[in-house]
Amino acid sequence: AGPAESQFPKMMLNTDICLAFDIDTAEDIRCCTNINMINPATGENRCGIFETNQCKRIDSTHPRAESAQAVLEFLGGNTPNGDSTRWYRAFTEAWTKATFNGHNELWPVQESCN
User: Fold this and answer.
1) What are the tens digits of pLDDT across the range 19-38?
2) Is 51 within 8 Å of 32 (Cβ atoms)?
3) Does the global pTM surpass 0.70?
4) Which residues contact 108 (CB under 8 A, 6 or more apart)?
5) What torsion do the CA atoms of 68, 72, 77, 83 make, to the nearest 10 degrees?
6) Cα(58)–Cα(19) distance, rounded to whole angstroms?
7) Could you give the CA distance from residue 34 to residue 52 in angstroms, rounded to a whole number?
8) CA 101-98-67 angle, 5° bins
9) Which among 24, 57, 53, 56 is positioned nearest to 36, based on CA atoms?
């Protein structure tokens, strides 16, 4: 994944989109999460028929505001960028908790099976 103007722009998972954008009803989903993305190969907007209808972001009063803030933080803050450090730190912490939970005698993988 890369910048919006590249052939491979950043991609968000469906779960991230649901946490970051206020698209809870059928009417709300008739929008595009980034109306500024142009396909460099065709010069056309990637949003198709929704190219002028930007999806509403979750605001600070919404019940999912904390989750929306986390998605924004993992994208690189208010100015999305390629820095995934925050996401990797959070993932490492969660992965460690998930894989070590209840396992007190874990050992590194052996180089060989002798």
Assistant:
1) 999 988 777 778 998 888 88
2) yes
3) no
4) none
5) 150
6) 8
7) 10
8) 135
9) 53
